[in-house]
Structure formats: C-alpha cells, structure tokens
Amino acid sequence: MIEIKPALPVRRPRAGTRGGEPLRFDRTQARAAAGRPRWRVPAYNADIARVFDEIADLLELQRANPFRVRAYRRAAQTVGDLDRSLATMVAHGDDLDALPGIGSDLAAKIAEIVRTGRCALLEQLRAEVSPRLATLMRLPHLGPERVRTLHDELGVETIEQLHAAAEAGRVHGVRGFGERLEQEILEATKPHPERPARVRLPVADEVAQSLLARLREVRGVERAEAAGSLRRRRDSIGDLDLLAQSSAGADVIQAFVHFAEVDKVLAAGDTRASVVLANGLQVDLRVVARESFGAAWLYFTGSKPHNIALRRLAQQRGLKLNEYGVFRGDAQVAGRDEASVYAALDLKPIAPELREDRGEIEAAQRGQLPRLIELGDLRGDLHAHTRDSDGRDDLDALVAAARARGLEYLAVTDHSQRLAVTHGLDARRLAQQMDRIDRLNQRLRGFRVLKGIEVDILEDGRLDLPDAVLARLDLVVGAVHQHFDLSSERQTTRLLKAMDHPHFSVLAHPTGRLIEERAGCVFDWPRVVRHARERGCFLELNAHPSRLDLDDSACRLARDEGVLVCISTDAHSVLDLGNQRHGVDQARRGWLRRGDVLNARPLSALRPLLARTM
Ligand code: DGT
Ligand code: CA
Ligand code: CA
User: Which of 72, 197, 249, 538 is the one with CA 20 to 30 A from 556?
Assistant: First the structure.
C-alpha cells in the first residue's frame, strides 16, 4: 500500500453504522434524502468540501473523465484547507475563482451551495449512482472498479452486505478478488462499537467562530468566548463549549437555541443549553454573570484533571473553588477573570494549552512556566513540495507566498523516486531542481531557498537515494510512507538506521498518523528521540491539521531530551503555508519554547545545525 498525503483526510466509513452514514458529521444526508435542503445557513467549508468529495466519488463510479474527478478532489482539498469562511466570502462578493484550483464553474457551485443549501449536480449524481457505493469506496482495499464489480456481481451496496458476503465466502470467487483480499475485506467491514466521533480542530474552530460572532450580536450578551478542548487547542474536538456573559441568561439561551443551524435541542434552561447542529456537532452553552466569568471560563476550559488539581489546591487553603468563583465561606474572593482565580491559589496564570495536569501547576507554583512559542517566532519552513513532485504550485509561487508571510527561508523537499504516484524525483531530476534553486537564490535578496528532499525511508531503513546524491543538499527530510504496520522492534530499528545515514537531517511526520483516521506506526519513542540527539537529527512537527505529528506528548519528550523540533507545513500549495499556526498550537501543548524549535532560528544559526559532521 502506497500512501499519498491527502491534504484533507477522506473520512473512512466505519462499519456498523447505518446505510453508509458513518460519522455524525454526515447525519444531514438523511434530510437531503427527504428532499429538504442539506444544510441550513451557514454552509461551513467542511460541508462544501464534503460535497465536492462526494461528487468526485460518484463521478469516479460512473467512470467519468479522470480530469473532471481530479478537479473536484482538488477543489475539496482547497476548500477544506482554506482559513477563511467561504460563506463569508460569498456574502462579501469576493472573487472565488482566485482560489487555487477553483475555476468559474466551481466558484458558481460554491455560491449555489452557500445560497441555496443544495447542489444540483450532487443531487443528479445521487439519483444516478447509489451514494452508498461511494461509502464503500472509502474502505481500505476498495476503489471504484472493485466496488462496481462487487455491486454488479453480488448486488452489494452497504458495508453490512459486503461483510455478510465476505463471511459467506462469496467474495473470493468474484473476478479480481482472491482469498487474501476477502479476508482483508472481512476485517475492514467488521462492526465495531460506536465511538463518539471527534472533529479536527480547524473544522470545529470555524463553527465556533461563526456561533460566537452571532452570540455577540444577541441582545444582553456582554461577552462570548470559546472554552473546552477547543480553547486548549487539542487536535480533535468532541463537542464545543461556549461561554457567554450576560445578566439575561434565559433570553440568551432562547436566542441561541433558535440559531438557524440548530437541529436538536437536548436541553435548554435559564443558564445553559445543549444542542446538536445540523452538521452533527454538539454545542454546550453556558451563560454567567460578570462577577463569575473568569471562574466559569476556567472551569469550562478544563481540562477536568486540571480543574480537579486546582480545586484540591483551593481546599488546602481553606477556599472553595467552583464555576462561580473562589469563596472563603460565603464571600467571593476571586472569579471575575481567570488571573484572579490563579492568584487566589498563589499561581501564575497558566496558558490554556498547558492545562492538562501534566506538571503545569507545579511549574506555576515555582514560577517556572515555559514561555511558549508563538507563530511570529517562526522564521522559515523546512518542508514544502512543488510541482516537480506532487505540489500544486511552482517554486516561484511558493517563494513569493513564503516571503509574503514574513518568512526568511523555505526548504524545497519534493518526494523521492520511490513514491512514483507523486512523480518523485530521481537523482537526475533532483540535480536539475538544485540548479534551478541555485539560479533563483542568486536573484533573491533577503530570502533563501534551501535545497532538500523528502526521501523515502525504505522498509529496511535504507534511504531511497544514494548518500552521494543526498550530500549535495542543504537538508534531508526522511519519511515513512509504506509499511506502517511493522512490529515496534522492526519499526524502531528502521528509524534508527535511517538516522544513521550521514546526511539525514529531519524525521518527518514520525508516526504517519492521520487524526481520527489512521493510528500511525508504533515504535520505541524514547530510543528514537535519544538516537536523534546522538546523531544530531531533528524531529518534525508536521503542521497539517490532519497530521499534527509529533503529537503534544512527543513534543514534550523531544524537548526534555534536548532534540530540536521543526514545525513544518509540508505545504503542497501556497495555501498550506498557512498551516504553521496549527503546528504552533500543538507545539504549545507540548511545552515548546522558541529555543526548542529549529525553524524559529535565523538562517545563519540554522546552517551550522544542518551541517552534520559525523
Ligand atoms: P472534548 O469535548 O472531549 O474535546 O473535551 P473537553 O475538555 O472540551 O470536555 P467537555 O466538553 O466534556 O467539558 C468541558 C470542560 O468542562 C472540561 O474540559 C472541564 C469541565 N468539566 C466537565 N466535566 C467536569 C467534571 O466532572 N469535573 C470537573 N472538575 N470539570 C468538568
Ligand atoms: Ca468539549
Ligand atoms: Ca461539553
């Protein structure tokens, strides 16, 4: 299995859910079938991306022109990665076809979806091809051809039907299906207990910002903020927690439960509401009075273990801490803002990203909280792709975009030859690219393009290009794209051996995980991190919101072992350069300071670090 980096993860359907509606984020399909608009206002970017992905799936099942399929896939990626709300852009009359991969036809479709909540093409395709087949297509091992064959030969349309067919041994007789594949299908379609779906942070963030903007318009609302895991910047979010300050709680709650996209009201009282939105996301809203806002914000930001530890500290001081404030007897001594609550407990204020009870309270007591990295600290980006492999933009466009973001350097790291699907570079094409970069650098002032490669780490730990070729590069980013499922022992040996190469610089997206989609490979973290230190290598924190790999605890481990982390976008287009902020969120959760981050250093400081003298 070769893995191609999806900019936006395609959601894998889980077996055991009804009729190909795998995630609650897809619940709206039921309504569409009933002839009602699929979305109510507003259509979020994630909704629009999903429409384009489904159109691509259905077109593929119809054997449509591959270029047309690809156009919709790319549009889904662009839309999913966008850091602006398309609904807002449409409302402002912005020029949508200026977005990469969005021509006038797609721009019109986006406007149609935003304005009407429907997409005529999707509806037409759904009438022609069963949308359930599109769900089957996203199972491992199954593409459009195989799904069509299964449908034609066995009449299979749903995951349950496919599972039953595999169980009965009817699959392996079908043309192109062997016994091994049948076993794999059996495994992939196995029902497993429903696990609550979580959504990636940027998807939840777009919804939260939109709700907050409208809450702030509600009469009587003095302030509205996000709390919960969203505020702690966790990489996935279970539900949204919003907090409003008002002395008219019941009115605010009533206004909120009547917001257009509220689908179901689970609870609504004078100070709190729980609702489910049309896109399936649950939202909890609390309304509190001004004197309690800080205590409530602290409480609903959590995490729960952080709250429990704080309450214990309060008790030790003869105080009571709850969501209304800090109390001595009946008298409130703090709670208007968060800092007052921390101060009452003799603590310096703790950044939300640290509130996990992982030592932040002790650090705050000792006055040793880390000064966390900020987006503005990043000076460059050390992982980016151009059209030479699977990037969408050319070198000049990437450089211009990186400069516009205030960066000082950018490493071009296209894929190596092994990843044929990405049009990976062999030694000859890499040499040509290096020449082009040299010529470009002669023209550039105040900006440097670094010559690199994202070289495949082969199954045995060798690299996909000879050392002599790698020696000519400024940096070598190594990555695993195949054989994710080796035993921990073999995976560890593989990674250690890769780092033994004299020119290896950065281990990219070390686990290969895709959030809420693929667990990633297993290896001995402490050994890999220590080996990186011994070999003078660095660990990448891949900033793509579906990867965020290193995760927070791995960042912390790298920091504690003295290995520099580089926060890299792995950009496949100019838009992706904007993903740095997601990497910074995760780095902050991992306690990283500016000094812990390789690409927070100026170019002059970078050079000696990258020149490995082994
Ligand atoms: P999530 O929604 O799974 O991504 O994670 P959170 O952290 O947003 O959790 P959630 O929505 O269940 O609750 C929001 C915050 O409310 C949580 O971070 C801390 C606070 N909280 C919830 N339940 C409890 C509890 O039983 N005890 C304490 N001390 N705090 C709680
Ligand atoms: Ca939550
Ligand atoms: Ca909640």
Answer: 197
* Average confidence (pLDDT) per 10 residues, the chain, 614 residues: 33 35 33 40 84 93 92 91 88 88 92 90 91 85 89 91 93 90 90 76 95 96 98 97 97 96 94 93 97 98 97 97 97 97 97 98 96 98 95 94 97 90 89 96 96 96 94 95 94 97 96 90 96 97 96 97 98 94 98 98 92 54
pLDDT at 6: 32
Task: Supply 127's token pair.
Answer: 């009438």
Please tell me the predicted confidence (pLDDT) of residue 240: 98
Work out which ligand 1 atom sits closest to the CA atom of 302: 18
SS3 471: coil
Q: How far is CA 153 from CA 170, 172, 175, 293, 476, in A?
A: 10, 12, 9, 62, 48
C-beta of residue 407 within 8 angstroms of C-beta of residue 379: yes
Helical packing angle, 293-301 and 304-316, nearest 10°? 130
**Separation between Cα atoms, residue 293 and residue 521, nearest integer Å:** 43
Please state the atom number of ligand 1 nearest to the C-alpha of residue 284. 11
Instruction: Compute the 3-state secondary structure of the chain and give helix, strand, coil in percent, each to the nearest 5.
Output: 45, 15, 40
445-474: b or e for each residue (b if 16 or more CB lie within 10 Å)? eebbbbbbbbbbbbeebebbbeeebbeebb
User: Which residues are near ligand 2, the ion (C-beta closer than 5 Å)?
Assistant: 228-229, 239, 241
**Residue 158 phi, psi dihedral angles, 5° rounding:** -120, 165
CB 544 within 8 A of CB 571: no
Is residue 259 helix, strand or coil? coil
How confident is the model at residue 253, as a pLDDT?
98
Mutation test of ligand 1: which of 203, 229, 321 has the most ligand atoms closer than 8 Å to its C-beta?
A: 229
DSSP state of 238: S
Q: What is the residue whose two structure tokens read 């909890």?
A: 284
Cα-to-centroid distance, 15 and ligand 1 (Å): 29
Tokens of 569: 């976008």
Q: Whose CA is nearest to atom 23 of ligand 1?
A: 304
CA distances for 200 relative to 25, 72, 238, 375, 552, angstroms: 11, 22, 9, 20, 15
19 CB-side CA count, 13 A: 8
Give every CB contact of residue 52 below 8 A, 6+ residues apart in sequence.
72, 73, 75, 76, 79, 106, 109
Task: Select from 168, 201, 166, 170 the least CA-distant residue to 184.
Answer: 166
The answer to whether 478 and 455 are in contact (CB under 8 A) is yes
For residue 230, report the distance from its CA to the centre of ligand 3, in Å. 10
Residue nearest to atom 27 of ligand 1 (CA): 304
Pocket of ligand 1 (CB under 6 A): 228-229, 234, 237-239, 241, 299-300, 302-304, 307-308
Round to whole Å and give the CA distance between 78 and 102.
Answer: 8
Distance between Cα 306 and ligand 2 center (Å):
14
Give the number of the atom of ligand 1 that is nearest the alpha carbon of residue 299: 20
